[in-house]
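User: Okay, second chain of the day. Same drill as before: sequence in, structure tokens out.
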Amino acid sequence: MKSNNNLQTIYVMWLREIKKFFRAKSRLLGTIGMPFFFLLALGFGFSPMSKMVGAEGISYLDFLVPGMIGMSMLFASVTGGLSVLWDREFGFLKEIMVAPVSRWAIILGRIIGSMSTALIQGILILAISMLMGFKIVGLINVVFGIIFMILISAGFTGFGVAIASKLDDTQGFSLIMNFVIFPTFLLSGAFFPVTNFPAWL
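Assistant: Same drill. Structure tokens below.
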């Protein structure tokens, strides 16, 4: 009986995140818009002049797309932590925490919900990039890509929720996340191969 309650709690928390995502049209457009313009400007603008050491023989668009998918999922995943702070501020978190359900089920449901929204955004970016000329070679690469997307969303959603659970201020959370996210993103090799970095870095 207890496991059924936990599964129902996970499902309810997951469904709440999915509904919030699809109802917030501005959030969806904003999250997809930035990677799309990066792909448009960098993928086509820099492609003719791009001579990347370590990535010879592939177009800059093909190199750039995985990084843009990772970027959209990174920002979307961390938003899951921010929603915890908003729920705490508006009292929803207090109401759900006093309910006779496992706290682990609540946390897991939120994380799976944020992971799902991040995956949806990543897949949308992938679909848009394929219309722009991005090529996927082999079905096995699609499978590995989706597995990697799940790992990205799980890791950063969990990290965002963990940080949010220790903070009360949304502005402080945003500052900490920016301090972590932007160096991670810029040093990830999304814009250029990591072989171009100095050896010490």
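The CA atoms of residues 125 and 131 lie 10 Å apart.

User: Thanks, on to the next one.
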